[in-house]
Specification:
Chain lengths: 543, 543
């Protein structure tokens, strides 16, 4: 990534979003989710992708039905063989080795207390389980890694035994021996000193990894302290997902290793400059998949990470950003935001409009009107950040360019739960829409899966002379965010659409009525499609 | 706070929530907000509360109309006097000194580049401004502090000048000289080394502070590195509020300094054990004031900070929490949570059932039935980890204990968007519900904000003899998650309810119809409430 590559040491990135990240309260990946996340990670250039624990639950078993990565090593996680059975007679171990993974990452206790209490076996049996599990895996032609669980707490309680566990894994042929701060309370200096001790005990740092948790908000610092002390693999997750307070945040670590001199002068990862510039996109896409709002204050990738509203800083910032920003936002695909209601804000708007192919003069009063409308809508719950098409429509309408292709005179939705003729309890949703096109009213009715689907189907059933044009319009995603509490809450609906051209666009609707919010977003999607067909919208480079 | 107080060094906590925290995008404190936050901080035992910049804006000027703290030093923030005027002729400086504060914290440039470009004065003039501002403040009987802005970047560019700035402030009599990582990109080892250099240059560490930002997710680590190197004041904010990625999180720092041996053995703060046990409350109350949901993964104080859903961990955790938790949740007023999920094993289930006051033998076949049902439902989109009440109902039903208080024979929801008599476009939602209680059918109709609200209101309008019992039932939160794409998607609804007892419970519903999903969750909420009134549900300790 820089000129003197030869002198740099390679640090390997091991993603456990799909395994430890799955322990996050509120997170529940489906097999499709896992496939999507593995694709993102693989394309981005992560070295290792841990997919889950095949055999432990149906989702993970299905996910490991085939190999899910192209470039990254695809890793199955699981326990070492049990005490009292041989490696060849342990069905759990056999399933791990037989799974469609490139490697198996074993979790092994490294704190003698846990060996006794949780495993109920002797210290020596635990070591023997590590040896046999690693050897059986290697013999089967796969790489074996060992996560030494509770390593740091175990080291404090019994350093000799903790080191024995790591050394046993190492000697048995584990490609990576990973020191885990399972409870997350270890401080960076402790991590640094203990990693040094482990290396001094004869384990090559190039086969040593760190697995940190964020329970004292220092998972990133702990990971870097371990690298500083000689470890060469970092385990972490996208956006710091993970059990309790989360794992080390790989997004932050990727950026820091690449962009902060202290690290980039000595180390390199497998992430190219080009991929690095997609880091913000990666982080936000993952939040989208989790259907949660990206944290605006996230380091490097948050919407506020390069934002300032301080008057004194804001004007100086624009003179010379480099002295007010610790890194250039472009490097990770983020953007600078100056939140002042003056020329800075206005030129920001002009840039966004230009990106949509809309050119307007800075002193055009319609620009002030547009800014005022956007501010007012955002105050009422709209967010145009994720809804480019709705923003473009609003801008074109305010600048007086959008024809009224059709109008919806009224709609009516009914949802009924009742017993049918056979006595079964059924729920039927029906939508009726009256649309006027060129003075002619078209009335359509449709049933659907739920009220929004019924409305959608009825609305797109008969648009008169435009109907043929929207046949290829497809709604690919529908997201709902409740903006405040209670069943009378304000609802924001975000719809993603596409057509045969492959282009995707996003529209938004906000209302205290989820049907109305959906209706607004659907109308924008259809109108955008019609404009796009005419080549008068959707001109931006971004998809 | 511990036995050998005499040997411990005092670390002082300086809160800048009301000053640097106010730079957070989306945060805008009113004077009343500031008064409330200052009260919280003062009562908690913070040493210094920086309230803002009197004279810079009307809010801060009003806030400094009187002294706002009882115990903590009340600090006004502002710039040193300008070059070219004497201290006695600078109205900004005069206003700061005249404000109703105990102390003034001056921000002073410590990077020669910024002295030249942003201030437009000479390096010596900048030093002279520091000296005169500090001296004038001390002469007026107030303490003076100096925030050395851009100190670490400035030190890298010109170490002699950066140190001169700090030394000038120190020699002029500043009680605290604070080294600021203004751009937030400095790494912990750099902070440690530079703080050592500053102390070596003749500045007593007992008058040295650290002000860190979280741009590489290491504000906490940087603050602690500075303390380790000899600094004795930490500036930070509640929940890490602040410009861009935020300031150092004082909540995390307070807990870490008090509870992690590495720090508590050597240092003490002004926070008592008793106040420490209110830390979770402090953090969440502050989020309440900001009207935002507390981050569940926050270290120490988040709802997930002591939560686990891992089967293998969950069973061991309950045997001996100390070996699975880096600190006791009670110490900071937080609680342990063990959650049911796809991930959990049988002992996990038994523990969760026991926590709900449901005792069942491990070999009871109904337990296997329950586990099978939960797994099947989770596969179809249910998630019980956030829906304790629905889980308890399902468990009690499977174990055959829940009476049918009432049944809903049918419901019907209509949503209509049309022009009203005055020609305005309106959307009306109406719900009709037929309920049978003791063989008597009750039919209710209600309008609402959207279809779900209409259904909710109609459902709770007339439950016959149970109606009086549910008058205090209140729905406090309603969340929707779309589990897959398109408007025909599977929808998961999560409802949070409460009543006069203050207890809160969560229920869940899943369907391809959002109305049905909401209906299922509403039914569970009402049924749970009725059971709870009878003392036959909701027996768990956790709220």
């Amino acid at each position: 990534m820089a000129e003197n590559n030869n002198k740099k040491q390679r640090v390997y990135l091991f993603d456990t979003t799909l395994r430890d990240g799955q322990q996050t309260p509120g997170v529940d990946f489906s097999v499709d989710d896992k496939i999507a996340v593995a694709d993102m990670l693989d394309a981005f250039g992560l070295d290792y992708i841990e997919g889950g624990y095949p055999g432990a639950n149906p989702t993970d078993t299905d996910f490991f039905a085939k190999k899910r990565t192209q470039k990254a090593k695809f890793v199955a996680f699981g326990m070492t063989k049990r005490a009292g059975v041989s490696a060849s007679n342990d069905p759990g171990l056999a399933a791990l080795i037989a799974s469609n993974s490139d490697a198996v990452c074993f979790v092994a206790k490294a704190w003698d207390y846990h060996v006794r209490v949780a495993l109920g076996c002797s210290n020596d049996e635990n070591l023997e389980n590590i040896t046999q599990s690693v050897q059986a895996t290697v013999k089967a032609g796969k790489e074996a890694y060992v996560d030494c669980e509770h390593f740091f707490d175990g080291y404090k309680a019994n350093p000799d035994y903790a080191i024995s566990c790591a050394k046993t894994a190492y000697d048995a042929g584990a490609r990576w021996v990973v020191l885990c701060d399972t409870n997350g309370g270890t401080q960076p200096d402790e991590v640094r000193n203990i990693v040094k001790e482990v290396i001094a005990a004869g384990i090559d740092g190039h086969r040593l990894g760190i697995h940190a948790h964020n329970d004292t908000e220092q998972a990133v610092a702990n990971s870097l302290a371990a690298v500083d002390a000689g470890a060469r693999q970092i385990q972490g997750t996208l956006n710091g997902l993970g059990e309790r307070c989360g794992n080390a945040n790989l997004i932050t670590l990727i950026a820091t290793l690449a962009l902060k001199d202290k690290w980039s002068a000595r180390f390199e990862t497998g992430i190219t400059e080009e991929k690095l510039s997609e880091l913000t996109h990666l982080s936000r896409s993952f939040d989208e998949l989790l259907n949660r709002a990206p944290a605006s204050q996230s380091p490097y990738v948050g919407a506020s990470a390069f934002a300032t509203k301080a008057g004194i800083h804001a004007s100086a910032l624009l003179k010379d950003p480099a002295t007010y920003e610790h890194v250039e936002p472009d490097r990770i695909g983020n953007t600078r935001r100056v939140m002042v209601s003056d020329q800075g804000g206005k030129s920001n708007f002009l840039n966004v409009l230009a990106r949509h192919g809309i050119n307007v003069r800075k002193d055009d009063s319609r620009l002030d009107t547009l800014i005022a409308i956007v501010k007012e809508r955002e105050a009422s719950g709209y967010s145009y950040e994720g809804a480019d098409a709705s923003f473009e429509l609003l801008a074109r309408r305010t600048l007086g360019e959008v024809p009224t292709f059709f109008s919806v005179d009224s709609y009516r939705i009914g949802v009924e739960r009742r017993h049918n003729a056979s006595g079964q309890l059924i729920t039927v949703s029906e939508g009726v829409v009256k649309v006027t096109v060129d003075g002619v009213q078209h009335m359509s009715v449709s049933e659907g899966h739920g009220p929004v689907n019924a409305l959608d189907l009825a609305l797109r059933k008969d648009l008169g002379k435009y109907q043929a044009e929207i046949q290829d319009l497809e709604l690919v995603d529908y997201k709902v965010r409740i903006l405040n509490g209670g069943t009378e809450a304000i609802t924001r609906v975000l719809i993603e659409s596409t057509d045969v051209s492959g282009k995707r666009w996003w529209t938004v609707g906000v209302s205290d009525n989820i049907i109305d919010a959906s209706f607004i977003a659907l109308m924008d999607s259809i109108t955008f499609k019609l404009l796009k067909n005419r080549g008068t919208a959707g001109l931006s480079a971004a998809e």
